Amino acid sequence: MKKNTGPKRMDDIARLAGVSKPTVSRALQDSPLVSDETKKRILEIARRHGYVVNRNAQNLRRRRTDTIAVVIDFPHLPDNRLTDPFHFELLGNITNALAVRQQDVLLCSSQSAHSGGFEHLLSNKGVDGIIFLGQSGHHEEFRALARTAVPFVVWGAHRDDATYCVLGSDNPLGGRLVAERFRSLKRKRAMFLGPRGHIEIEQRHRSFAESWGRAFEELEVPDLSFVASRDAMLERLDSGKPAPDAVFAGSDTMAMGALAALRERGIEVPADCSVCGYDDSPSAVHHSPPLTTIRQDTRMAGAILVERLMQAIQGTPAASVLLPTDLIVRAT
């Protein structure tokens, strides 16, 4: 009679490993209740005998889909399009952190998510939780959502009245670091470049103003784009007023737009004007000249956003996190 050499069942794996069936189940789910040594032995036996975990059945038992919705909402991007390198890097690091946990990603626009309702995302779209990238204009909506059973976390700015888990960098510290840098360079005619109504940039602006402690120029732009910042700066430089000798832009992309305008008008950087951005996006180091900026650690941000969301999905309260920021001095 021919011996059966086909794939084994969980009962077979338990017998071969000398453990109970529940222990095998926990080991295959990477449970901390099983020691690393036992887990390794069980996984090795399972692979050797062709045992494949039925994820659909497993998820059905746990009432989980292992799918996370990422809702992108940056209203100050031109035409609401995702074009800034910083946002791509943040999204990529979130995706990587989810992949490590074997989680799938469902990308959603803010319009579809808000119009359909967040409970709709969990029930109809089959997701376990939501990561919101962008907070402007939805603070009260998030406060209301925190009173429901929807697990979610937000990338944005810290607020004293936030009743939900929000992860963001220390924007006030960033503003202070730039002001201190400009003072150390003996700059006198400082300018802040950025849009109004963007909570994270407003925090950077307010902290810069408090730390600078003297009058400075504010140049408002309609959005976060390179083109809007370049055009606004060109118009300002052509106004006949003395050019600024220091520019703090609310993002790296806006800083690069300002640098392009300064170059077009023959203003030397950093000899005549110092420029500082915010984000330390991948393009900052490769720009010519390399951009001085405030660093936001997107790898850490992605990992902690996912960690906090997993806590919320498991029913554990997830605390907000304030990420450290650093001044990265380069050539501008």
From TrEMBL:
<dbReference type="InterPro" id="IPR046335">
    <property type="entry name" value="LacI/GalR-like_sensor"/>
</dbReference>
<dbReference type="GO" id="GO:0000976">
    <property type="term" value="F:transcription cis-regulatory region binding"/>
</dbReference>
<protein>
    <submittedName>
        <fullName>LacI family transcriptional regulator</fullName>
    </submittedName>
</protein>
<dbReference type="Pfam" id="PF00356">
    <property type="entry name" value="LacI"/>
</dbReference>
<dbReference type="GO" id="GO:0003700">
    <property type="term" value="F:DNA-binding transcription factor activity"/>
</dbReference>
<dbReference type="Pfam" id="PF13377">
    <property type="entry name" value="Peripla_BP_3"/>
</dbReference>
<dbReference type="InterPro" id="IPR028082">
    <property type="entry name" value="Peripla_BP_I"/>
</dbReference>
<keyword id="KW-0238">DNA-binding</keyword>
<dbReference type="InterPro" id="IPR010982">
    <property type="entry name" value="Lambda_DNA-bd_dom_sf"/>
</dbReference>
<keyword id="KW-0805">Transcription regulation</keyword>
<dbReference type="InterPro" id="IPR000843">
    <property type="entry name" value="HTH_LacI"/>
</dbReference>
<feature type="domain" description="HTH lacI-type">
    <location>
        <begin position="8"/>
        <end position="62"/>
    </location>
</feature>
<keyword id="KW-0804">Transcription</keyword>
